[in-house]
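For reference, the entry.
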Amino acid sequence: MSAREEVVILDDDESIRSLLSNVVENEGYVPKAFADAREALKRLEELCPIAILADIRIPGMTGLEFVHEVRKSHTNLPVIVMTGFPDQEMFRESLRYKVSDFIAKPFTIETVQKSLRHAIGTDDSFADAFLDTVTHRLREARIALGLKQSEVAARCGMSTSQVSQIELRQSAPSVTTLLKLCRTLHLTMESLVEGF
C-alpha cells in the first residue's frame, strides 16, 4: 500500500487506539497509531498521511497544540479531534485550527466512519462554491418568476422556513428537494449545476 493511504491516530488510551485502528483498516487505510504527540509529529513527514484522528487530552502536549504544530507544514490535512470533555471553548479553538470534525467521546464506530469519510472525501472550497452557485440560481429563478418563498414552499410541499434556509445557505438541500425546487422553478438539474 502507498503511504498516501495512511491515517495517523493519536490517543494515549491503548484500547481507543486499537478500536480506531480497526475502523481505519475497515475503511481501507493503514493506521499509524501513537500514544505520544511528539513522536507522531516526528514521524509525520515520513508517513505523509491522508488524515489524522487526535485526542484533545494527551500527556505532554494537548491535542490542539498538536494540531497547531501540524498546521505549520500541513495546512489542508484533514484533522479530526476527539474528546471526552467537550465544551464550547474547546470547539471554538478547534475551529481556529481548521479542524475537519469534532467527535465527543464515547463515540460510535459509525460516527468515526462518517467523520473519516467526510474528511477524506470532501473539498470544502468545492462544496462551498457549489452550494453558493446552486442557492443563488434557485433564488434568481424564483425572483424571475415573480414567486414568493411561501408560494414556492406551497408548490413543493415544504415550509417557507425551509425555502428561506436553503436560499440563505443555512440548510443544504437534498437531491430530492433540489428536484422539487427545479420543477417548481422551471429549471433543469443540468442548468442548476452547470459548471460543476
